[in-house]
Automatic annotation (TrEMBL):
It comes from the Bacteria. Keywords: Disulfide bond, Membrane, Oxidoreductase, Quinone, Redox-active center, Transmembrane, Transmembrane helix. This is Vitamin K epoxide reductase domain-containing protein. One of its GO terms (cellular component) is membrane. InterPro entries: Thioredoxin-like_sf, VKOR, VKOR/LTO1, VKOR_sf. The chain crosses the membrane at residues 59-83, 104-126, 132-150, 162-182.
């Protein structure tokens, strides 16, 4: 009597594994999204490179943290992976089979998009930003693993159809990414022509500054303005708003703030382009550039400030230190 060949283990456990990896991705991106919206992105970074990446212009899409889009993608992947497993094959065999067929194609398409997206972000991280973010690397590993399992975790009947879907989804994702990030490293792409220092007077201002300034914040702002320090930012950038709140509204009004987005109020995008600004906020102090939200203590140190330091507001402290 001939023994029936057993189902390969990868076919039996691929859905469970994909669901588990996607769940880990949900937890990671939810953690980072909460940190972004609460202004604590810098405090959860284990390395300076991580901070540079999370506070770069590439970390947001239309003012929304990129981690939120990752959270949604992982959540959808987890639902597609686990949903058919909740259907009892003994009582609803046909329904389970239909659910598996539909979700396998969905998981492959989404897995392809996530792979292309992560690959592009790895390129940006290593080539454009030139920094290392452990969270980003972990997410990229998750995406590669999910894509591999969607391809190898099932006995696909029509590999030609699978290849066609992968090419279409990959191309659409890549074109979308190129469109979104086309002007990230050149914020003044359409402002004023080559060498122009044109200022756009009207425009967006972003959320209002709530905090009141103390005497120390005002004294530091006056000192930074006196030595010609500049802060480059964008009205939609949450980290720029976090920096503004550290100073308070009275002190911030004294700073030499350069709006890099041409849609912002008093925008000077060409200045940002000439300075090579790629992340917001970026401080230029005595010829040195400092990317990301800076504590008032650090700004005081690097600028040679010698006035009072009883600052009212401070950055959240890393929980692990």
């Amino acid at each position: 009597m001939k023994r029936r060949s057993s189902t390969p283990w990868i076919y039996r456990w691929s859905r469970h594994t994909i669901g588990a990896i996607a769940t880990a991705g949900v937890l990671e991106t939810a953690f980072l999204t909460i940190a972004e919206y609460t202004g604590g992105a810098a405090s959860v970074c284990p390395t300076s490179g991580c901070k540079e990446v999370l506070e770069s212009a590439y970390a947001t899409v239309f003012g929304v943290p990129l981690t939120l889009f990752g959270l949604l993608a992982y959540a959808v992947m987890a639902v597609m992976a686990f949903a058919p497993l909740a259907i009892n094959p003994e009582t609803s065999k046909q329904q389970r089979s239909q659910a598996e067929n539909i979700t396998w194609l969905g998981m492959f398409a989404l897995g392809t998009a996530m792979l292309v997206f992560s690959s592009n972000l790895m390129y940006v991280m290593l080539v454009e930003i030139k920094a290392i973010c452990p969270y980003c690397i972990a997410s990229a590993i998750f995406s590669v693993a999910i894509f591999f399992l969607t391809v190898a975790g099932r006995d696909w009947e029509d590999l030609g159809q699978l290849f066609f879907i992968g090419i279409v989804v990959g191309m659409v994702t890549l074109i979308t990414l190129l469109g979104i990030y086309a002007n990230v490293d050149k914020p003044g792409a359409s402002g004023g022509g080559s060498g122009s220092q044109t200022t756009t007077v009207g425009g967006e201002t972003g959320p209002p500054i709530i905090n009141e300034s103390g005497a120390a914040e005002i004294a530091l702002a006056e000192h930074l303005a006196k030595i010609g320090a500049k802060e480059y930012g964008a009205y939609w950038c949450p980290h720029c708003h976090e920096q503004k709140e550290l100073f308070g509204k009275q002190a911030f009004a004294l700073l030499n703030y350069v709006e890099c987005d041409e849609k912002g109020k008093n925008a000077r995008p060409q200045l940002c382009k000439d300075a090579g600004i790629k992340g917001f906020p970026t401080w230029e102090i005595q010829g040195q550039f400092y990317i990301g939200v800076q504590s008032l203590e650090k700004l005081a140190d690097v600028s040679g400030y010698s006035g009072p330091r009883d600052f009212k507001h401070s950055l959240p402290q890393p929980s692990g230190n």
